[in-house]
Structures are given as C-alpha cells and as structure tokens.
Amino acid sequence: VPVRHRVALVGAGIGGSFSPALHEREAAALGLDYTYRLLDLDHLPARWTLREAVGEGATGFNVTHPAKQAVLEQLDELSPDARALGAVNTVSVDGDRLIGHNTDHSGFLSGLRHGLPDVRQDRVVVVGAGGAGSAVAYALVVTGAVVAIADADPARSEDLVARLRERFPEATITGLPVERVPAELARADGVVNATPIGMTGHPGRPFDTGALEPRHWVAEVVYRPLSTALLQDARATGCRCLDGGAMLVSQAARTLALLTGTTPDLDRMRRHLSEL
Ligand code: NAD
C-alpha cells in the first residue's frame, strides 16, 4: 500500500504561502501520494493542538510565524539543531510521538552552497536577528565563519549573540550596531539580509549599499519579490547574489525529504517557484 502523506502548514496569515504548490508539485514529480494544506491559527480554536490534526490524519507539519517557538511544548522530542535554535519549522510524526526539526538553517546553507558554490565565507555580516536571522547566523557559525550580527533592535542582536556563544563557545560571534554595517563590510566576504526590509510593504534597503564592493556576495531571505532593492544594488555593483527563493526552496526540499524519505530535485523546485 503506498504511503499517504498528509502535511499541513501551521501559522497565522499564511493564505498567500507558496509552500502548498512548492511541496505538491515536487511530490507529484516524485510520484508521491502527498497533499499539503494550510491550518491558519487565525481560524482555529485557541486550544487547538497538533495532536488533534494527527488524529484527523495529518502525517507531518511545517510550522511558521507565530508558532515556531510556541509548538515546542507540544513535542516529545527535538532534533539537536531545533533544540539549539529553540525553534521548530518541521514536525514529523512517529507513531504517537511528535518530533521537532528545523530546516531553516540547513535550508539556508544548502541554498548558499547550491546557488553560490565556492564563495569565501570566512567573515559574514548578518543583518536581522529574528527568526530568519537566527537560522542564518546559526548555519554560518556551524561552517566556522566569523559572524557579525546587526539588528535595528540591539536587544535582539545581543540576545542572539549570547545564545550562539553559549552553544558555540569556540566561535567568533559579535553584535554590531546597524550603523556599523557598512564599516564591517570592509573586512567581510559576504552579507545576508535577514530583515523584512525589501519585501512588499517594507520598501527600502536594510543598510547603506554604498559600501558594497564587487568582491562581496550578497544573500537575501526576502523572497517576495525575488529581486529586492538590495539585490539590484548588489548586482549593479558586480556582487555575486543569492535571492530569498534559494532558502525558501531548500528548506521546503529538506522538509519534504525529512517527511517522505525521498530526494527532492532542487533545480526542479526552483523552476516551480519561478512559475508561481
Ligand atoms: P522577525 O520579525 O522575526 O525578524 C526581523 C528582524 O529584523 C527583527 O529583529 C527586526 O528588529 C529586524 N529589523 C527590521 N528592520 C531592520 C533594519 N532596517 N535593520 C536591521 N534590523 C532590522 O522576522 P523573520 O521571521 O526573521 O522574517 C524576516 C524576513 O525573512 C521576512 O521577509 C520573511 O518573509 C523572510 N523569511 C524568509 C525565509 C526563506 O525561506 N527565504 C524564511 C524565513 C523568513
């Protein structure tokens, strides 16, 4: 009997998510019996739980804002990475056990390796210390990069720096005032925008792009639109660029792989994204 995969995305304001189409198209290409639906917390009772959805047939979950930390208390087990990050974006179901994972950080890293192979990443600046910035900074620290983290809210960057230092005592991780980002770029190999600045409804640039040089690489987490003002400036400067679609597609591929045991095709998923 073929396995039936019934996956759901849990979060608020997820009506426009690309994930159902990204997952279902790739699953169809892989020959899987796989559906991916939306469970919008705005339309669910406050006491609703993942277990209820499992009772109704769900076989796995993606979890997004604002539930990535809130679901932790419902889980029986955490992968080491999810534990270290304190955030879960994927939940697998094993019998009656719910297991939390995080494919945001591994997704960022595989997107970076796939999209910008061979770039130097000894020193990297991460702008934005929220959910996306935590995953990006964690992934970069794991590779051994020296990471400087800036956030418009210094308490958020200081908190992330403290958490990463505790987990990686050997690593070099520093907090950076946002106004110091251009100066820090003088000694960095690359920079990642992990703020919402550049997305639809949040126009502008997360930092003064005048400090970019052709030797820099620039990565975005913003994927709506795929071409942000930051990436346009970076391309005009001659920088190597990675758009936010890379992380989006790679984390979706990692979740799909984790929940089904198959090997999704990143290039095919990227083509799907460009058609959405
Ligand atoms: P968040 O609210 O958790 O964090 C955003 C952080 O950016 C906050 O700490 C905020 O203080 C900071 N910030 C805002 N403006 C800034 C500025 N000008 N300079 C410095 N810091 C600034 O949000 P999040 O969940 O991390 O999401 C951020 C963006 O990442 C969103 O656009 C989201 O769509 C995108 N995202 C993409 C992926 C992907 O797979 N590509 C995954 C997760 C999130």
Overall body shape: globular
Q: Strands of the largest sheet, in order across it? A: 2-1-3-5-6-4
CATH class of the largest domain: Alpha Beta
H/E series: EHEHEEHEEHEHEHEHEEHEHH
Gyration radius, to the nearest Å? Answer: 19 Å
Q: According to CATH, what is the topology of the largest domain?
A: Rossmann fold
The CATH superfamily name of the largest domain is NAD(P)-binding Rossmann-like Domain
Stretches where pLDDT is under 50 for at least 5 consecutive residues are none
* Helix share bin: 25-40%
- By secondary-structure content and strand pairing, the structural class works out as alpha/beta
Task: Provide an overview of this structure.
The protein has 276 residues and is an alpha/beta fold. The chain folds into two domains: 4-102 and 248-275, Leucine Dehydrogenase, chain A, domain 1 (Rossmann fold, 3-Layer(aba) Sandwich); 105-242, NAD(P)-binding Rossmann-like Domain (Rossmann fold, 3-Layer(aba) Sandwich). Helix content is 37%, strand content 21%. It has ten helices and twelve strands. It has helices at residues 19-29, 50-55, 80-85, 104-115, 131-142, 154-167, 181-185, 229-237, 244-260, 266-275, and strands at 4-11, 33-40, 60-63, 77-78, 90-94, 97-101, 123-127, 146-150, 173-176, 190-193, 217-220, 240-242. The strands form two sheets. A six-stranded mixed sheet has the order 2-1-3-5-6-4. Strand 11 (217-220), helix 8 and strand 12 (240-242) form a beta-alpha-beta unit. Helix 4 (104-115) crosses helix 9. The relative contact order is 0.14. The mean pLDDT is 96.
